[in-house]
Amino acid sequence: MRSFLFAAFLAFFITGCSSYQTIPETQVNQVIDQWHEAAANAQFETYFDLMSNDAVFIGTDATENWQLEEFKAFAKPFFDKGKAWSFTSLERNIYSVNGVTYFDELLDTQMGVCRGSGVIKKQNGKPVIAHYVLSIAVPNDNVASLTEMKKIWDASYIKELKSR
């Protein structure tokens, strides 16, 4: 009886885990590189086809937490001008744990060095970006002056958030 229960558990575990798919690192790199290239070349459809239907993009401003359709509306005027933004990966780390694939990267951008991080998932059999967070990399030596510079804005925004 014990071996039957173990075999049943093992079968259940293997079946349950089969829905998780580790995405090969080469495919992850390809998706992210194509995504950055599509933005630099103002290829709106290509850019957003590389994102999942339920994607979230979090920008550098505290107010920028967009669901896909909101992000498309924000980005469209930039793409329509012929160049959205240009991010070149300087360094990238890719991780796959329990079927979840995520990454972080240092970027050369028009804002200087930034950090991007995100989650890749499969949608209709192809890897796409499901979640992306962009942040400006601030050297530790500059944090105090940056904090002072944005103190008034932060206080106002915190007040607004608390009043909701």
From TrEMBL:
<feature type="domain" description="SnoaL-like">
    <location>
        <begin position="28"/>
        <end position="139"/>
    </location>
</feature>
<dbReference type="InterPro" id="IPR037401">
    <property type="entry name" value="SnoaL-like"/>
</dbReference>
<dbReference type="InterPro" id="IPR032710">
    <property type="entry name" value="NTF2-like_dom_sf"/>
</dbReference>
<dbReference type="Pfam" id="PF13474">
    <property type="entry name" value="SnoaL_3"/>
</dbReference>
<protein>
    <recommendedName>
        <fullName>SnoaL-like domain-containing protein</fullName>
    </recommendedName>
</protein>
<keyword id="KW-0732">Signal</keyword>
<feature type="signal peptide">
    <location>
        <begin position="1"/>
        <end position="20"/>
    </location>
</feature>
